[in-house]
Amino acid sequence: MEENNEVDLVYITERIIALSFPGGTEEQKYSVHLREVTSMLRSKHQQHYLLLNLSERRHDITKQNPRVLDFGWPDHHAPALDKICSICKAMDTWLNADLHNVVVLHNKGNWGRTGVVVGAYMHYSNLSTSADQALDRFAMKRFYEDKAMPMGQPSQRRYVHYFAGLLSGHIKINNKPLFLHHVIMHGIPNFESKGGCRPFLKIYQAMQPLKCYHKRYQNPSRDVIFRVQFHTCALHNLALVFTKNDLDETFKADERFPEYGKVEFIFSFGPEKIKGLDHLQNGPSVSVDYNTQDPLIRWDSYENFNRRLALLAAPGRGGKLTLLSSVSSSGRKGCWVRPGDVGTPNHTHTCMHNRYSGNMKDWCGLDTGRTLKNGTKP
């Protein structure tokens, strides 16, 4: 293969290969490079390579390669924790089946997706393999820190941290449902020419990302103010704060989001209104628009997500913005506000239920004796 900037193939270790294409690669060029890479892999590894596709499902990948597993998720995002676990189990099973077996991590887009998998498997293999593979883990660590994560998003690093902490036991699984009562923005982003913004929130249950949008004034379009992913199974405090550097989209010098800005989430273990937090309500002059039928608000940026919640907002002028969100049992409900001194909806909440419980090692097919559940010794 000739070296070029339209395909990047890296042997992270002798048995873990990263195959990356830039997200903007033209389809014709991508197809040509994919055939070249496939030919090289077949020549060097014969039937001993397993390709894990971390991007969108593609027929040509499946057709050209002997063994393909699709684990794709949207670019610049973190995958669900159970998907991380499934990927690590698939890699470990394949690599343990034959010493000649190798894994190819295919990605079309940002290096962040590959980084999540390498970072997670680095921690997973620390429990499932022997100590003499320390050099491989060092190589994975170097790739993760030097090549992948500088291109990644804060939420991607956060999910690797979750996974590592849950595996090691440093983070205990919280299996209690949490009720989100308040989302507070400290510092008003400036998305309008005269300052301020017209925010609304959307929460997607499948991966639990929360996206805050700005609805442009007299313009049928929207801008992302920030995006963040977190998982309630790793939360044990009822208040969660993200600084600008912790938020996806904003952390790379977006001047519209103030440097001192932060976003605060306030939870409880029940749906009842939290006592002592009346000061977080907006004033009586707030005007709230409950029209959630607006196509701009309803438009789903994750086409493959079947279960989703649309959660919308309420601002005010001054040093902070309080976003109050809810979903009722009868369907979608919420509010977004127009700019200015705006008013408050009734008290609302959102239940964020965590389906994970038990021990993360058992959940991922590992036990404390470092023996895989299928009986395979590391």
From TrEMBL:
The record ties this protein, via InterPro entries, to: C2_domain_sf, Prot-tyrosine_phosphatase-like, Tensin_C2-dom, Tensin_phosphatase, Tensin_PTEN_phosphatase, Tyr_Pase_cat
Query: Where in the numbering of this chain does the Phosphatase tensin-type domain appear?
Result: 1-170
The entry assigns this protein to a family as follows: Belongs to the PTEN phosphatase protein family.
The cellular component terms of Gene Ontology attached to this UniProt record, alphabetical and capped at eight, are:
focal adhesion
Give the C2 tensin-type domain ranges: 136-270
Q: Which organism is it from?
A: Cyprinus carpio
Q: What is this protein called?
A: Tensin 1
Q: Which GO terms describe its biological process?
A: fibroblast migration
What SUPFAM superfamilies would the database entry show? (Phosphotyrosine protein) phosphatases II (SSF52799), C2 domain (Calcium/lipid-binding domain, CaLB) (SSF49562)
